[in-house]
Amino acid sequence: xxxxxxPGRGKSDQDTDTIRRRLDSLxxxxxEIRARHNPKAEEERSERGRAMGNAMRLGTEMVAGxxxxxxxxxxxxxxxxxxxxxxxxxxxxxxxxxxxxxxRSAKAMQAxxxxxxxxxxxxxxxxxxx
Length: 130
Hints:
The chain has a domain at 46-117. It is 76% helix and 0% strand. It has helices at residues 13-36, 39-80, 85-112, 125-129. The longest helix is centred in the middle third of the chain and has 42 residues, at 39-80. This is AtpZ/AtpI family protein. Keywords: Membrane, Transmembrane, Transmembrane helix. Residues 1-20, 28-50, 110-130 are annotated as: Disordered.
């Protein structure tokens, strides 16, 4: 039997050199792409994601206070037969409770050092003039 048989056998050194050059060029391109990739951009995205989560949390706490207050007022109106009086009173109480919850949560976030919503926004035009 003369010569090797099967796939991949008997390849010349020229084919190996071609594959090596292609691998080297791909490695060079990969290095350029990695150099362009800024690791701070990833950190910035995660910070923005945390800030967005905090903003959603604060908004949800505000809305939840109003909804719970409105529901309690409506239920008391149904139970006592007073038209919208209790609902209006408890809507106001729910709004106040929601605002207080938002203030407490924002203070807790600030104490932990978490980014608050809007922290990365540019300064207002009035702040630039000063």
